[in-house]
Every structure is written in structure tokens, then in C-alpha cells.
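Morning - magnesium ion inputs below, output right after.
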Amino acid sequence: MDEFALIAQYFARAPRRAALGVGDDAALWPLDGQRALAITSDMLLQGRHFLPDTDPERLGHKALAVNLSDLAAMGARPCGYTLALALPEVNEAWLAAFARGLHRLADAHGCELVGGDTTRGPCTLALTAWGEVPTAEALRRDGGRAGDDLWVSGEVGLAALGLALQQGSPDSPLLASQATLDATTQARAIDAHETPVPRVALGLALLGVASAAMDISDGLSSDLLHLTRASGVGAQVWVDRLPGHAALAALPVAQRRALQLAGGDDYELLFAAPAQQRPRVAQLTQTLGLTLTRIGRLTPLPTVQWLDHAQQPLTEVPCGFNHFAPS
Ligand SMILES: [Mg+2]
């Protein structure tokens, strides 16, 4: 039983008062007739999501960033969060740095820490964050329509490269590539993995523009399936047009595709928008100073096709991350 089957079987329940329940980047809880709270929880576990020697200040940033990214994916403006923290011991230097990273990002988004819990145990960071969104305009995964353009923000695959460089297993083909990457590029890739930038401003700007959206956390190839299934459509994606750092272009094509399609932790937004919104999306690239790339379109046929530069479907598609995936 994989992560998604587990949720579907034991925890997905029909919403009663919620405007949107289990299965999107965040739930929607109605505040009044017009507005809702988007609510999300994300957990980071040492050894699973981060290495024991991860810089605590960066870890504080990331723990909140992954939650803010889910709020961004709904088009919500962050309001507050709670923090449940398990630690094997009290290390004040570690805690001070962790809190610094956490508070800096929270303050940048006006997001208040209002409670939580602490306990002794294996290092685990569980946050619940919420933000406000106009209910009818919230960016859900199920609003995509056949014919809509498919867009992605920023660059895809760099965080996965950062993780591969940090893990540096000796048999990794990336190790050979590592020699060709300069120190600045390596640092940029590691930054992308450790300090992702939640696309909150983009999410807000996409209200009334995008028909569906989600953030890329597990890898584009598996994340896109959640959006197309929720919307009851398929997609065609031009794999060789995926935006990536120049360092990725220098890699052998199979490695580049694996990083871009299966590599997670990008925390960029994947969104659909009707073709008549192209000028507005182009304008957002300017006003936000953030590259937005049209990578494909939604199709009526409910399958996802990954097309190469010759418009031929890839025979093998690297898959994203799935907790509890059968091994
Ligand atoms: Mg998400």
C-alpha cells in the first residue's frame, strides 16, 4: 500500500463543513461566505527529509518554507502556524539557529507562530500553517480543463541535483558530473535543496488567472498526475522545454530528465491556465521577476504524455517520490 492508497483508505473522509477536504495541497475551511482558511501540515524527519548535519538555520527555513509552499499552491496569504518539535536533547546553539531561520521566513510573510508542542524523541519537525484565500478563486488541483496551458515557475531539477551532490554516493553517475560543476553552481544547487523559496507572491497573483495549481514537492512526473487526475484530464509535456539551470543542460540527457521529472523538493508551482491568460502570465514574469515557462497543455485524453524535442513520447519516465512505495 503506497502513501496515497493509505490516505484514501483510512483517512480521506467526505468533507462536512470543510469547503475542500483531504487530497489537495491544503484543505479549505470556510470563514464566511467569501473567504476560507487554507490549512496544511508538513513534517520533516531527520534521516528521511534531512541529514543529521544539516545547518539548523537552513532547516528552520525549510520546515516553514514547505508549508508556505502549500499555501502558495492554493493562492492563500499566510497568517499563522504551529510547531510540534521532537528533539533527542536540548542543544541551545542548535535551537537558536533553528529559530532564527524559522522566524526570518515567518516575518517575511507576516506568518505568526501561535502554539505547538515539544517533546523528547528522534528529531522531527511538524508544522501546521494556514492562510486566507477567497474561497471561489482558491487554486485547487481539480479546476484544470482540456486545452489549458501548463506552466511551471522557476527552475526544475536543481534541488534534486543539490541533494545528489550532498549524498554523493560513490556509484552515482552524478559524481562524474560533479567534476564539471564549478563551486558556485554546486552551492546554488545545495541552496535550492536546503532553502527553497515558497512562491507565495506568485500564488496570490494567480488568483483569477490559473484554473488549477499545485506545488512540486515529490517530483514533476508524479505531482502532475495528481493534478490531471483531480481535474479529470490528461496532459502533454514538452520535456526538453522544462526550465533548468545551465548546470543541468550540461548533464547527459537521461540524468537531466531523471532530476527534472523524478527529483523532488523543487517547491515551484505547477499550474494550468486558459490560453487567453498567456499575456497576463507573461506580465507576471516581469512584475514578480520570476521565470514562468509554458511546458505543455492539458488534454481530453486522460493520460500524460512526456514528449521529447521530436514530439516523440519518452519510453521510460522517471517517477517521483512516494512514501511507503512498494519496494
Ligand atoms: Mg503540495
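Note: The chain has eleven helices and eleven strands.

O.
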